[in-house]
UniProtKB/TrEMBL annotation:
It comes from Paenibacillus albicereus. Coiled coil: none annotated. One of its GO terms (cellular component) is DNA polymerase III complex. This is DNA polymerase III subunit delta. SMART domains: AAA (SM00382). InterPro entries: AAA+_ATPase, DNA_pol_HolB, DNA_Rep/Repair_Clamp_Loader, P-loop_NTPase.
Length: 326
């Protein structure tokens, strides 16, 4: 994947492509940002561009070095991932030994990529600091971390910071749909999960589509059909596998009530249950916005009671009562 193919992250790509274009490549970069923001993809794309012979601000994808990289045959790329929960001293010492050898192609650089650099042991971090301070050959270090502040300050100060910002729900939705995920499920998942990969995993979760259908049913019944709503709780949730994840159901139900407010405010493009637009348009204005806000609060309260070990069925039945009372 080229840098230009990385979705979003304009600031990060601007920093890296400027370095490539001007030839002012730093000896170390610290990619910092939440998981699911494309740090590893970007690091690999940047590494390929560093090896590329095109001399441009991105990999050409056609030269010998690009082909070697894409086939996993680039000997001057060194990747380090945590051994268990952390990056350990032995891994950095092995890196030091690798760095002592000449590059496979005279005059080229070596690139090493350390995933979860904020999970290095203190000994490993201090050993890496020596590598950064006294490189034995032309090298570029790419360090990936969730939080810049969790990296040893002396390492962070010797690295060019490259910020990675969380994708917006709209950006993640666009990416997921482009990758073939069901649009309606993806539209809900991006508001429930943290990051694109977690959203993708949620859309693939067994029962997610059915839970969404139950939420639509409950959302409609809770407005005026109290008995039907209780039956739904008892039959479709408590006595089936759908009841295994009441927190997911309640999170979706919060989004259902939030859609009522979005419609009232003229933000139908922000709605999650967009396939229910006709029903929502007919019912959103039957109650004031304050009512829908209270529905959201009651639903979040039920989630809190379940976390406090109240039986899910009881918490859900109490929720139906509170929703009827307004």
């Amino acid at each position: 994947m080229k840098l230009s193919d990385i979705p979003g992250q304009g600031k990060a790509k601007q920093i890296l492509q400027h370095a490539l274009r001007t030839g002012k490549v730093s000896h170390a970069y610290l990619f910092a940002g939440p998981s699911g923001t494309g740090k590893l993809q970007t690091a690999l794309a940047f590494a390929q561009a560093l090896f590329c012979r095109s001399g441009d601000d991105d990999a050409c994808g056609e030269c010998l070095e690009c082909r070697k990289f894409e086939h996993g045959n680039q000997p001057d790329l060194h990747r380090i991932a945590p051994d268990g929960q952390s990056v350990k001293l032995g891994q950095i010492q092995e890196l030091q030994r690798d760095m002592a050898y000449r590059t496979a192609d005279a005059g080229s650089r070596k690139v090493y990529l350390i995933e979860k650099a904020d999970a290095m042991t203190p000994q490993a971090a201090n050993s890496l600091l020596k590598v950064l301070e006294e490189p034995v050959s032309p090298t570029v270090a790419i360090l990936l971390a969730t939080h810049q502040g969790a990296v040893l300050p002396t390492i962070a100060s010797r690295s060019q910071p490259v910020p990675f910002l969380p994708y917006s729900a709209e950006e993640m939705l666009e990416q997921l749909v482009a990758e073939g995920e069901p649009p309606l499920l993806a539209r809900a998942a991006v508001h429930l999960a943290s990051g694109k990969e977690a959203s993708k995993a949620l859309t693939a979760q067994v029962g997610f589509a059915e839970i969404r259908n139950v939420v639509i049913q409950l959302g409609k019944e809770s407005l005026s059909r109290f008995t039907a709503a209780l039956v739904t709780v008892q039959q479709r949730l408590s006595k089936t596998e759908l009841g295994a994840d009441p927190q997911l159901l309640l999170s979706l139900l919060v989004l259902w009530y939030r859609d009522m407010i979005h419609f009232q405010a003229g933000r139908s493009d922000k709605m999650v249950f967009i396939d229910q637009l006709d029903w929502i348009s007919a019912h959103a204005f039957t109650k004031p916005a304050a009512y829908w806000v209270s529905c959201m609060e009651h639903t979040m309260g039920a989630a809190g009671r379940i976390k406090a070990n109240v039986a899910p069925q009881l918490a859900l039945e109490q929720l139906m009562v509170r929703l009827q009372e307004g």
